[in-house]
Specification:
The protein has 639 residues and is an alpha/beta fold. The chain is built from 20 helices and 27 strands. It is 28% helix and 19% strand. Strand 10, helix 7 and strand 11 form a beta-alpha-beta unit.
Length: 639
């Protein structure tokens, strides 16, 4: 067996480990963050759940950190109180980014982790079965300790050779994205193995598993080995270590090989993580901003490398350089080891230990700026500036470019000073910003005026007749569907307000048009709903009365979120039928219940008089969810 099969087998509650088959797995741990967590806990309450059934659940506050009004602070108070009331640990603001902190303090090899954040697979860097999901799926996991999912195919990624000093783990995952694309991992797990794995530290592995989300992969995983034990020992958690690896001669559904020694510095050009080019092709391009951090590249190892490259140098006068450490532990260690002084002396701005500019929470670049970022996504307008060109690069490329004022492709010679960097044998441990529910008695739940009920779908009954209120192209992201920026993030717990901005970057009139039409149907292209796990991209359309989404293909998490909200996700049987549909056409689904039951059906375009076929493969559970008008309806009806 490969490692992925072993992990799924050890957590299998029901079903068969056959690719594509519906299965139920047990959930050991969950995580939420404050951008998606407010809704997840509102849903946990709606389910009527008591204390969580997992071994460990943690609520992180790391996204909506700018408190320019009462909204974010109110959400934080709600999350802290409702989490403690249900037996969930709380990582308070300032403690760090969920994935970095979870890796440091809570992740355990061999355990399963489900998180309401698409980058939850970061935990695969220490051999966890770590899966991102919508908030409602995480609420259900907390309520009953299980997750419904389809068994993924397993892609074996063999790593051979060793990275050159001017190449980083970021370049590994950019190479995989270059080969496979942002939809190349849909329905798959990326399992890394081979002699090249031994040369990668846990922080480097976590960078790779983190950005596996950009492939659309269910998760990514590395073995748990001596490097894993080294990391956990440094965290004072040696007892959490267990060895895990694939069997000798394990088989995979697909297999690719990456020669680490042949890689060179890469970058992802605007506006997609798979738009990959050699950094040397951009060398000399003037830049305006550099941002180092995010859950992808904010570990102590990253910060030590950045400090070494900035030591004794000055950030170019035309460049704004920001650095956000991934956790308070990282920041503390940077200070103790002298790295913080070197970064500050260079002229960099050190930001809070939080997601920050990666999710559009501040540091939007100037008009027409070129921004280099060590983040995981460079979707159009995600930075907060529509005219900006955002490139994804390694921390080495970022640091050297910030000094030069132009795009730099690092050479081995420029990176010699990195050879002496070693991670400490022991990290400073201070968990006083983590609240243990065992230390609290009865907790009163705090609800501010910005917290509104979430919309519930309509049970299927009779035919659906609705207008096409938007038609999109390929690779529409959840950022496109439900924009995430400093102005809108404070309203993540207020769907009625948020819905007004649904798909506004694609079609500014969509929300108003759909409301006037009394609902509608969305038509889309390939890989619709890629990106974040945010279920707001399903809840907002639900609030507007969207009954179905018909596309060429879906991203996994968004499709699941649509089902949870009672919106029918359908795929064209013939992709050419997409071309025959126009904005404003009236479509009719004569018998939606039969369509859901049979997995196939016909949609009539009343406007053109033509019909076209659609298909959708639903599990029995998903059929029941859609017929009930959403997961909450089904769950409450069952009770």
């Amino acid at each position: 067996m490969n490692l992925t099969q072993k992990l799924f087998k050890s957590h299998l509650v029901s079903g068969e480990l056959t690719a594509g088959a519906p299965i139920v797995i047990s959930v050991d741990q969950t995580l939420t963050q404050d951008s998606t967590g407010t809704m997840a806990y509102l849903q946990l309450e709606a389910l009527g759940a008591g204390r969580v059934k997992t071994k460990r659940s943690v609520a992180y506050i790391d996204h909506n950190m700018l408190q320019s009004g009462f909204e974010n602070a109110d959400d934080h108070a709600y999350i802290q109180s409702v989490a403690l009331a249900h037996g969930v640990f709380v990582s308070k603001p300032g403690n760090g980014i969920c994935h970095q902190v979870h890796l440091e303090r809570f992740g355990i090899p061999g355990q399963s982790l489900v998180g309401s954040d698409s980058h939850t697979p970061t935990g695969g860097g220490i051999g966890m079965l770590a899966i991102g999901a919508g908030g409602l799926d995480v609420a259900l996991a907390m309520a009953d300790g299980t997750l419904n999912i389809s068994m993924p195919r397993v892609v074996g990624v063999e790593l051979v050779g060793r990275l050159k000093r001017n190449v980083t783990a970021k370049d590994i995952i950019l190479e995989v994205l270059r080969r496979l694309s942002v939809k190349g991992g849909v329905g798959k797990v990326m399992e890394y193995f081979g002699e090249g794995v031994n040369s990668l530290s846990v922080p480097e592995r976590a960078t790779v598993t983190n950005m596996g989300a950009e492939l659309g992969a269910t998760t990514s995983v590395f073995p748990s080995d001596a490097r894993t034990k080294e990391f956990l020992t440094a965290q004072g958690r040696a007892d959490d270590y267990i060895p895990l690896c694939a069997d000798e001669n394990a088989s995979y559904d697909e297999r690719i090989t990456v020669d680490l020694s042949a890689l060179e510095p890469l970058c992802a050009k605007p506006h997609m993580p798979d738009n990959v080019a050699k950094a040397s092709e951009l060398a000399g391009t003037k830049i305006d901003q550099v941002c180092i951090g995010s859950c992808t590249d904010s570990s102590l190892l990253t910060m030590l490398k950045v400090a070494a490259l900035l030591d004794g140098k000055r950030v170019h006068p035309d460049v704004s350089l920001t650095v956000n450490p991934g956790s308070r532990q990282v920041l503390t260690m940077m200070s103790r080891l002298g790295a913080l002084d070197k970064i500050l002396d260079s002229g960099a701005r050190v930001l809070e230990c939080a997601c920050g500019p990666c999710i559009g929470m501040g540091q939007s670049p100037k008009t027409d700026a070129v921004s280099l970022r060590t983040f995981n996504r460079n979707f159009y307008a995600r930075s907060g500036t529509k005219s900006a060109s955002v490139y994804l690069v390694s921390p080495i490329t970022a640091a050297l470019s910030a000094v030069a004022g132009v795009f730099v492709s690092p050479t081995e010679d420029e990176c010699k000073r990195l050879d002496s960097i070693e991670l400490p044998e022991r990290f400073d441990i201070n968990d006083n910003l983590i609240l243990d529910p065992a230390d609290f008695g009865d907790v009163a739940i705090v609800r501010g005026p910005n917290i509104k009920p979430f919309p519930v779908g309509v049970p299927l009954d009779g035919k659906i007749t609705a207008e096409v209120t938007v038609k999109t192209g390929d690779n529409i992201t959840t950022d496109d569907i439900m924009p995430s920026n400093a102005k809108l993030l404070p309203y993540r717990s207020n769907i009625p307000y948020l819905a007004k901005f649904c798909l506004s970057t694609v079609d500014p009139d969509f929300a108003e048009r759909t409301e006037k039409a009394g609902g509608g149907i969305i038509i889309g292209g390939e890989n619709y709903g890629q990106g974040s796990s945010r279920e707001h991209a399903a809840l907002a359309p639900c609030k507007l009365g969207i009954r179905a989404v018909i596309v060429k293909s879906f991203a996994r998490m968004h499709r699941d979120n649509l089902i949870n909200s009672g919106i029918i996700p359908l795929v064209f049987e013939k992709v050419d039928d997409y071309d025959g549909i126009t904005l404003g056409d009236k479509l009719e689904i004569q018998d939606p219940v039969a369509l859901v039951e049979n997995g196939r059906g016909t949609v009539r375009n009343v406007t053109s008089g033509k019909s076209f076929g659609v298909r959708a493969e639903f599990t029995e559970r998903q059929k029941n969810i859609l017929k009930a008008g959403g997961t909450v309806n089904l769950y409450k009806n069952a009770k």
